[in-house]
Amino acid sequence: MTVTEQQNPLLEGLRIRRRPDPCLLVIFGASGDLTTKKLMPALYALAVRRLLPEHFGIVGAARTEESDDEFRERMKKAVQDHARDPFDDDVWEELAAGMHYVTLDFADDKGEDELAQTLTELDRERGTNGNRVYYFAVPPSAIATLVQEIAERRSAEGWVRLVIEKPFGQDLHSARELNSLLQQSFEENEIFRIDHYLGKETVQNMLALRFANGIFEPIWNRQFIDHVQITVAESIGIEGRAGYYEQAGAIRDIFQNHLLQLVAITAMEPPIDFTADSVRNEKLKVLKSLHTPGPKHVARGQYGPGFVEGHEVRGYREEQGVEPSTMTETFVAAKLYVDNWRWADTPFYVRMGKRLARRETTIAIQFKRAPHPPFEDGGSELRPNVLLIHVQPNEGVSLAIGAKAPGVGMTIRTVHMDFLYGGAFREGLPDAYERLILDAMLGDPTLFTRSDEIEEQWALVDAIVALWQRDRPSFPNYPAGTWGPAASDELIQRDGRSWRRH
Amino acid sequence: MSVEALSESSWTGEDATIAQIERELARLRIESAGEDAQPNLRTSVMTHIAWVPAQWQVAAEETLAGMGERHPSRTLLLVPRPEKDDGLDALVSIRCFPIGNRAVCGEVLELELRGRVAEAPASIVLPLLISDLPVFCRWRGEPPFGSSELEQMVGVVDRLVVDSQEWDELRYAELAQVFDRTAVSDIAWRRTESWRFALAREWPGIADREIEVSGPRAEATLLRGWLSARLGRALDDITVAEADSLAVKLDGEEVPRPRPLYATPSDLLSAELDQFTRDRMYEQAVETAAQASNGV
């Protein structure tokens, strides 16, 4: 063996972070909120930590007329306003040096040609070898045209990755069409359907909690768990996005993607390893085995006027751009079953909505009661054990246990043992987009949704929406700042259970 | 990034007992929450011991400032004062930092081990360890190899952290005797990390080129030991000289100076506290460096 064929002996023991190949990141929809509030701050955080490729460039593309300098100035402000790190001129100058802007009408060949030319020039200038990440921060209607244009201009040199934001389709039919369109020109491993919840540390911690701790997995099943409650609650309204929300509603905005992914991660079997397909195969099995047991077990709602955190807010029908008689739901609660050996007959109660009492995303695993509490008052004050995963805010895990209250007698009280991320690891949690953009550059799709997962998610949504065609609830049916309509409470109370107290 | 402490409360005791220290810690923890507030969280990822002879006390306190935020722990700052009368003085404090609507508290115990108590540090440390969490000991200055106090601490801790740049004499052969009993890391070695990355990029050419290393004594010696061990070249084949900062020449040509990976002494210590396993490359570098009598 010659010297050059040997492994590098000097690298052994060094903690090497995998750095992406040189590449250009093209952001379609660069004038939008997602770019300023999430993507650019995430890219800056990656630059601070020197996780971006050594040879790298960013090209913003949108309809708005803007020069390179104006784009850089706007992105600088975005970083100063929204980044989690203090602003550092040196880091910014290095990042901004590779930043360009192309005005682009998505249906216009001329704009696409100009973009292609800019990218070719940047390849030469920055040594990015034809590698491209295309980030689609655009409405679904623009995706098909862009994908075709990219496919037509695809060069033989370098790799291509497409990052597609939600919503991925409007129903099963449109999702299949979009999948089919993408797969005509690109391989599945080149398509990254983003669900930013999967990039959250606390969602990934669910995998660590389950599969790195021997104590949980043996009891993570129907024998020991009474039921699961998942809440994705927002206190904000639609924030000026009436055009999108009127089409989507809560079921397409949250349930179809974030919520079903949380169910899948909670209920999945242990994967054989943490490669992308092993993890996604296990999630897919859960999604395939999900069903909701009929119309009585789904509640929908729409918020009316009310008070949120002390401020009076208008109802959904009074929001700008919303039809005064709209039937779009802003709240969904449902009882779901996972039909497999582990979870048969164990309900997963889920609820999500806007203008609820507070912002909170949690997964609560409620265990069965102790079979026979031998205490004086029968342990009547004793609540079942609950393992509570705080996805956001106050990221962490709590376990509710019964403990003896000090004093004579044997009085049992429920106490919480808390693990807060901010307490144990004070490094500051990375934003989900940092992890996901980096993974896309590295070509690791583990935390992205595969085409078959998306289609299973839509199949369930379509089944629920089909049930809704039969009735017309009286909207609005919950005041802003509460925990949703009465039908949501009835849904769970019929089973002798209640939503977690807050 | 430094987070402003929400509160700090403390208790001082002369000729204190362990029971007293534990009792006062518990009291301070309860009081730190305030009467009507939720109890504060005591979060720890380790017990962090620092053995700090009097001449190192200021430097140690500067390095430890802010460590509680990055590595919530119970910190035991042991200050040996063998020249004084026998006894144990304690300054116990709780430092709390805001997390949402709660606070997370770390505990710092500054313990002056007077007289013969300084000869029996394990008897003080053992009852104060947090169960089931790793124990790290940062030994400031040159460890007294072969002494009873060092032997006791090696028996207690999961990782001994030294900085051989602080030593008068590079006693690597004696340090290597400890490797099979506890994991050891060296902040001087950590300082060479950016250079090790830079030199790894010179592979495979570096294998046959003339290598000259210069720098602070400990860092240059360790880097030379590492190059010799990893490249399979005789130690004498690599020249070494003392200088203010590390530099490496290959066939007389300077390797571009890499950007340092760690900005402050706290960053360096923090990096060591993130490592939980034996560092075989470091051990190899030390064992190879020990073949030379006293480094540079």
Shape of chain A: globular
C-alpha end-to-end distance of chain A? 66 Å
The string of secondary-structure elements of chain B, in order, is: EHEEHHEEEHEHEHEHHEHEEEHH
Radius of gyration of chain A: 25 Å
What is the count of helical runs of chain B? 11
Largest sheet of chain A: 9 strands, mixed
Mean pLDDT of chain A: 89
Which range best describes the helical content of chain A: under 10%, 10-25%, 25-40%, 40-55%, 55-70% or over 70%? 25-40%
Largest sheet of chain B: 9 strands, mixed
- How is the quaternary structure best described? heterodimer
Helix proportion range of chain B: 25-40%
Q: Mind explaining what this structure looks like?
A:
Chain A contains 13 helices and 19 strands. With 502 residues, chain A is of the alpha/beta class. The N terminus of chain A is likely disordered. Chain B contains eleven helices and 13 strands. Chain B starts with 6 loop residues before the first strand and ends in a 7-residue tail after the last helix. Chain B has 296 residues and is α/β, with parallel strands linked by helices. Helices cover 31% and strands 27% of the residues of chain B. In chain B, strand 12 and strand 13 form a beta hairpin. Chain B is elongated, with a radius of gyration of 21 Å. In chain B, helix 9 packs across helix 11. The chains are: A alpha/beta (502), B alpha/beta (296).
Short description:
With about 500 residues, chain A is α/β, with parallel strands linked by helices.
Features:
heterodimer, A: 502 residues, alpha/beta, nine-stranded mixed sheet, B: 296 residues
Please outline the helices and strands:
The complex is a heterodimer of chains A (502) and B (296).
Chain A: E1 23-28, H1 33-48, E2 56-62, H2 68-82, H3 89-96, E3 99-103, H4 109-126, E4 132-136, H5 140-152, E5 160-164, H6 172-185, E6 191-193, H7 201-211, E7 225-233, H8 242-267, H9 276-288, E8 290-291, E9 298-301, E10 303-304, E11 306-308, E12 311-313, E13 331-338, E14 348-353, E15 360-367, E16 386-392, E17 396-404, E18 412-420, H10 421-424, H11 432-442, H12 451-468, E19 478-479, H13 486-493
Parallel strand pairs in A: 1-2, 1-4, 2-3, 4-5, 5-6, 7-14, 10-19
Antiparallel strand pairs in A: 7-15, 8-13, 9-13, 11-12, 13-14, 15-16, 16-17, 17-18
Helix pairs in contact in A: 1-2, 1-11, 5-6, 6-12, 8-9, 8-12, 9-12
Chain B: E1 7-13, H1 18-32, E2 41-42, E3 46-51, H2 57-64, H3 67-70, E4 73-81, E5 87-99, E6 102-114, H4 121-125, E7 135-139, H5 148-156, E8 159-162, H6 172-176, E9 183-186, H7 187-191, H8 193-200, E10 211-215, H9 217-231, E11 238-242, E12 247-250, E13 253-254, H10 265-273, H11 280-289
Parallel strand pairs in B: 2-6, 3-4, 3-7, 4-6, 7-8, 8-9, 10-11
Antiparallel strand pairs in B: 1-5, 5-6, 10-12, 12-13
